Amino acid sequence: MLNELLFRFASWLDTFQSSTDLHEALYMYSWVESAHVLTLMLFLGMLLVIDLRLLGVAFKNIPASKIVERLDKPMMIGFIVMVISGALLFYAIPVRSTQSIWFRIKVVLLIAAGVNAFLIRKMTRSSAMKAWDNDPVPPKRIRVGAALSLGLWTLVIGAGRSMAYDWWDCTKELPYFMYWAAGCVNEMAAFEQ
Ligand code: HEM
């Protein structure tokens, strides 16, 4: 049911001339993909510094709130550019992206990383932060959040990078479960005959 819905949505996006034009553009697609990759440095570079402070392993002599305050804006600008460039990459190749098991794993990881980031944001903007702001090693719940953040975003990058490889594309001979997990609706139908 969900696979059919996603496939129909992606096939509908594929009917737009601008989707094909973007994918077949001489330069634009590469520029959008370069923006997607290069912005990693801005977004995840800032996030790495914040998480290392919240883990209590670096910048220990600087109040955590100072680091969060200074790096939050560039980090959020990076995140917004990643989401916009990512959405354009998806729009350029909607069917292959939707039927990519790596893209599906990436979306699940993005949601988990987003929820974790929201919780860390809440904890680092509450008045309770004053109690540990100057502590070289923050409380355990903060450190767990920061460790989860580093782990989840690293997995997002891994899943994103793996999208380029066709190991488990619908065109391959795969077990039924993999066709289902990747949303290969036509191959599933052929399998059931
Ligand atoms: C905000 C966090 C995100 C991160 C850290 C991220 C990371 C990555 C990475 C590392 C790649 C591999 C680039 C390469 O080496 O070729 C990639 C590719 C891709 N990403 Fe993202 N991404 C993010 C968000 C998104 C979003 C929100 C979407 C779509 C809605 C998206 C869609 C894509 C697509 C379609 C590709 C494949 C491009 C290709 O192989 O041609 N990304 N992403």
Describe the fold and architecture.
This protein is mostly helical and 193 residues long. It has one domain. The chain is 76% helix and 0% strand. The protein contains nine helices and no strands. Helix 3 (28-55) runs antiparallel to helix 7. The relative contact order is 0.13. The model has no long low-confidence stretch (mean pLDDT 95).
List cofactors, ions and other ligands. protoporphyrin IX containing FE
Query: Can you give the mean pLDDT?
Result: 95
SSE sequence, one letter per element: HHHHHHHHH
The number of distinct structural domains comes to 1
Largest sheet entry = none
Q: In terms of per-residue confidence, which ranges show pLDDT below 50 for 5 or more consecutive residues?
A: none
Distance between the termini: 18 Å
Number of helices: 9
Instruction: Please state the structural category.
Output: mainly alpha
The tally of beta strands, per DSSP, is 0
Query: How large is the radius of gyration?
Result: 20 Å
Question: What is the beta-strand fraction?
Answer: under 5%
Shape type: elongated
* Helix proportion range: over 70%
Question: What descriptors fit this protein?
Answer:
193 residues; 9 helices; 76% helix
Topology:
Layout: H1 2-14, H2 17-24, H3 28-55, H4 64-92, H5 94-98, H6 101-125, H7 140-162, H8 176-182, H9 185-192
Helix pairs in contact: 2-4, 3-4, 3-7, 6-7
